[in-house]
Write a structure and sequence with these properties.
Blueprint (H helix, E strand, L loop, with lengths): L1 H19 L1 E5 L9 H13 L2 E8 L3 H7 L7 E6 L8 H15 L3 E5 L2 H14 L3 E10 L2 E6 L4 E6 L5 E5 L16 E3 L30 E5 L10 H10 L2 E4 L1 H5 L20 E5 L5 H4 L7 E6 L12 E4 L2 H11 L2
Parallel strand pairs: 1-2, 1-4, 2-3, 3-9, 4-8, 5-8, 10-11, 10-12, 12-13, 13-14
Antiparallel strand pairs: 5-6, 6-7
Helix pairs in contact: 4-5, 6-9
Length: 333
């Protein structure tokens, strides 16, 4: 009798706590629309329970807010428009997040574990005097999280005691939320105090490609130092065109100047988890594996049978890539 009452009380108390919880998601976008990782963050936030709000900050970010309005399960969309947010610098966004937190008293603040989130959330955590929880790959409860540590060699489960939990979530670990079924109105928030002369946005140059974006592509072909030069990456581009795949690279290839650093896959680059990942001339350093080992199917092509990449590969081909890749390309219609 007492045991049954205890379970009922625990369940009611847990439900009461969930009602008290509220999460603020920091949307990542380009003003014209949402970036995919925001939808992954939405899925993660829904696992926390409680009310969910999204903060959209930018210069002319109406289209991004409009896209979010269709998401199901949101309580409000907060929009902050100001020239101060040109370039989305962490120095200008931090005071906005802090003031929004003080106004609505959120228990959780969530963003994607991207370059944007990694720059912003530690600053917010420092201002709020709490410990940020980075690279979350699983949520067990509102205060217990699973994260990757030591370049993915260990998985840590931790319980956070801070009153405000600040999380960066790995996009590849959460399915993107479908933006449909909802109808949420936007409301403005104050941008007072967000302008700063600490950092001034000058300009940015975006690389353009007809191939899929690296972090959202279903197929990725990456090259390493084994390709010997940047010109030889044409072998991968030809194969990628046949497979409609994105092209990536190891840090060694980027450091050698073969390709630009926006193609880097790994712990200090982009985290990918495509349906198919083909590693060409990549030995498989631990930092690279951390960025791609969640791929559904991994294929490795390397002439060294002892290369570490073969330990995580589903299919391995011990061969000279300069012969194997053109032959594979020619076999594809």
């Amino acid at each position: 009798m007492f045991s049954g009452y205890s379970r009922q009380f625990t369940s009611q108390f847990s439900n009461h706590l969930k009602r008290l919880q509220s999460t603020l998601i920091i949307a990542e976008h380009d003003n014209k629309g949402l970036l995919p990782i925001t939808q992954n963050a939405l899925t993660a936030a829904k696992k926390l329970g409680g009310e969910i709000s999204v903060l959209v900050a930018g210069t002319k970010c109406g289209p991004a807010a409009e896209a979010l309005s269709k998401a199901n399960g949101l309580s409000k969309i907060l929009v902050a428009e100001s020239d101060a947010f040109s370039g989305f610098t962490a120095e200008s966004l931090t005071p906005l997040v802090i003031s929004t937190q003080k106004q609505f008293n959120y228990t959780h603040i969530v963003a994607g574990a991207s370059a944007f989130g990694k720059a912003l959330l530690p600053r917010v955590a420092a201002k709020l005097d709490v410990s940020p929880i980075s690279d979350v790959i699983g949520i067990k409860s509102p205060d217990t999280f699973i994260r990757s540590i030591y370049a993915g060699n260990a998985i840590q489960t931790l319980k956070a005691n801070d009153p405000i939990k600040i999380l960066s979530v790995r996009g590849t670990s959460f399915e993107p939320d479908v933006l449909e079924g909802g109808s949420v109105k936007s409301e403005p928030v104050s941008t007072d105090g967000c302008a700063t002369d600490m950092t001034v946005f000058i300009s940015q140059e975006l690389s353009k490609s007809d191939r899929p974006e690296l972090t959202s592509a279903k197929s990725v072909i990456s090259g390493g130092r084994g390709l010997k030069s940047g010109d030889n990456f044409k072998l991968l581009y030809d194969l990628a065109d046949k497979l409609n795949a994105a092209v990536g690279a190891s840090r060694a290839a980027v450091d050698a100047g073969f390709v630009a650093n926006d193609l880097q896959v790994g712990q200090t680059g982009k985290i990918v988890a495509p349906d198919l990942y083909i590693a060409v001339g990549i030995s498989g350093a631990i930092q690279h594996l951390a960025g791609m080992k969640d791929s559904k199917t991994i294929v490795a092509i390397n002439k060294d049978p002892e290369a570490p990449i073969f330990q995580v590969a589903d299919y391995g081909l011990v061969a000279d890539l300069f012969k194997a890749v053109p032959e594979l390309t020619s076999k594809l219609s």
